[in-house]
Amino acid sequence: MYNQKKAQLRALLANPAFNQNFPGQRGSLIRQSLNVVFRDLDMLVQGRQPNPGPNEVRLVAHAARIVQEIATYEPLNKYMADLISVYVEVVKNWNAQVVRARDIDLMLDTTARLVAGYMTFLDAINIMRRFVDRFERMMRYTPPSFDLARHYLQLVLKKYERGEPINKYEEAKQHIVQQKQESEKDSDPNSQDKSGKKMKGRSKKEPSTADSQQSSAGSC
């Protein structure tokens, strides 16, 4: 396990991105601290007991503090997050087996939590980015059924504005309503010609002028 992490760290240190993201004294401190850590852990693998000097322990502690400040105050990219994660894991292993310094352990734990939180946030951003891309593609794509529904809706709105039935059911219902209105109009006695009725009644009941004159002559 240690050899895998060591190889991973050496590959990250050899990457040109290291000097870009950890320039100057910061990069130099990280490299020097790892030289001490690798030496002591190699000795443990060989069955020997390492004995780092006070200056070397302070060097590793100072480098761990620098790494913590980078994780706290600077925006991280994936390369930086990967390197810091492996760095913390290897140095924490060294501290647990060689120095057992509580302040170094606390700094490394804090850095590990910061990087883990950043990675979780980065994953959330990537998920949201994929969701937005998929949503934009979905908005650009219009299935044929959407076009048919849009055309039908426009047709219905035009018929509604003109007062026309929007489908066969509405057409049949409108026809039934018209027939009912015509039937009620025909059966309504008030709708007949009242003046005509009066004229017919008068012709039956009231005699004409000629009839009245004939009846008066006969009586004479």
Provide a short characterization of the protein structure:
The protein is mainly α and about 220 residues long. About 85% of the residues lie in helices and about 0% in strands.
What features would you describe in this structure?
The chain is mostly helical and 220 residues long. The chain folds into two domains: 2-138, no CATH class; 144-177, no CATH class. 83% of the residues lie in helices and 0% in strands. The chain has helices at residues 2-14, 17-21, 24-45, 54-73, 78-99, 102-140, 144-162, 168-187, 194-205, 209-219. Helix 1 (2-14) packs across helix 5 (78-99), helix 3 packs across helix 4 (54-73) and helix 3 (24-45) crosses helix 5. The model is unreliable at 193-220 (pLDDT under 50).
Please describe the biggest sheet, giving its number of strands, its sense, and whether it closes into a barrel. none
Gap from first CA to last CA: 153 Å
Helix content: over 70%
- Give the number of domains: 2
Mean pLDDT over the residues = 79
Shape: rod-shaped
Number of strands: 0
What are the low-pLDDT stretches, counting only 5+ consecutive residues below 50? 193-220
Instruction: Give the amount of beta strand, in percent.
Output: under 5%
What is the chain-wise order of helices and strands?
HHHHHHHHHH
Q: Helical element count?
A: 10
Radius of gyration: 50 Å
Helix/strand-derived category reads mainly alpha
